[in-house]
Amino acid sequence: MNSALGTETKSSEELIRRSLDFYGRALNSLGQSLAEKDKTPDDYDLMAVVMLDIFESLFMPDSSLSGSHVQGMAHILRLRGHEQFHDPRGWGLFRLAHHRLQKQQLAKQMSPLAESREWLEALNDDISSAISSVG
């Protein structure tokens, strides 16, 4: 019985070590991608930040890093502009990232991003224009 417990602990420690190794690699790769000169963050950059935030929420909840990628997500959404609303994948990623931002704001009793209202108004204008052109 003790042997099985020891093996399980060793296996668990190995998984933790490997997950933190991959976490570090993901941070490094994201940093390299975002450091490219004159590059607007793409879908892959946004998804990487969302996944890092999810990883930190699940596996590092007490860490000082908890929620650290929320500001990065907000900045990436700003840089991507309204064009992300017109692409199905970009729109889906926007919704996912914006939801993560809202969750963080609610959990930490923070004010909503100033851009949130602008983004929602832009979406409302797009919907109104689409309805007008159909009717």
Q: State the share of residues found in helices, binned by percent.
A: over 70%
Q: Count of DSSP E strands?
A: 0
Distance between the termini: 72 Å
User: How many structural domains does the protein architecture include?
Assistant: 1
Strand percentage, roughly? Answer: under 5%
Task: Flag low-confidence runs.
Answer: none
Order of helices and strands: HHHHH
Please, what is the average pLDDT?
Answer: 85
Radius of gyration: 19 Å
Largest sheet: none
Query: What's the tally of helices?
Result: 5
Which oligomerization state do the chains in this entry correspond to?
single chain
**Envelope shape:** elongated
Structural class computed from helices and strand pairing: mainly alpha
InterPro entries: DHMBA_Reg_Transcription_Factor
What attributes characterize this protein structure?
135 residues, mainly alpha, 5 helices
Structural topology:
Elements: H1 2-34, H2 43-59, H3 68-80, H4 88-107, H5 114-134
Helix pairs in contact: 1-2, 2-3, 2-4, 3-4
Write up what this structure looks like:
Helix content is 77%, strand content 0%. By secondary structure, the chain is mainly α. The chain has one domain. The radius of gyration is 19 Å and the shape is elongated.
Write a compact overview of the structure shown.
With 135 residues, the chain is an all-alpha fold. The protein is built from five helices and no strands. The protein is elongated and about 65 Å long.
